[in-house]
Amino acid sequence: MTAVEDRPMTTDIVKYFENFEFPEGFKVELLRGEIVMMAGPDVAHNDILEAIVDQIPRKNWRRLQTQDIAVLEQASQPQPDLVVVERGEGPGRGRLMPSEVITMLVEVVSKTSVERDYLVKRSIYAAGNVPAYFIIDPVMGQCVLLTEPTGRGDSADYRRQRLTKFGDLTPLEPVGIELDTSEFATYENVRPHRYP
To answer: Which one, of 135, 144, 142, 133, lies nearest residue 185 by Cα?
Structure first.
């Protein structure tokens, strides 16, 4: 496997992104050549993420937060809320985790990230051939597990989609667990959306 650092830069924006010092307290991602900055997350967001990490067994899985990922042939370096990698796989140091070694990516939808999480990142993660993309949506009180990536570039997508509601046990076959979502909270005073 090619080391992430040895990969050719897709565009000049990647070099700019990797060398620029962004203000502290913001999550910053490169998504298909666009630099996206977001303020810190809601407490409900962090509680959900903590509940997920607690349920994925550390013995078998690396559960990495604030980990940038590299997607081959994409001008993208997203930072999912959680990166799940089989223990013993992937690099032990460096800023980027190659998408080829990732088992599952998790995004907890924020009030301002709905379209990015459901459309843009869905396509980027499928293009990176990430086997499973798990969207947790406190706006709608639902979880969406996407599997079987197919296609390339902007047209990449997932073939299978399973939706469950908060409170239901949610099978996560890629990591071999049934996720208890009974403690997941929804956001207050947020307009519903039409996704997935």
So the answer is: 142
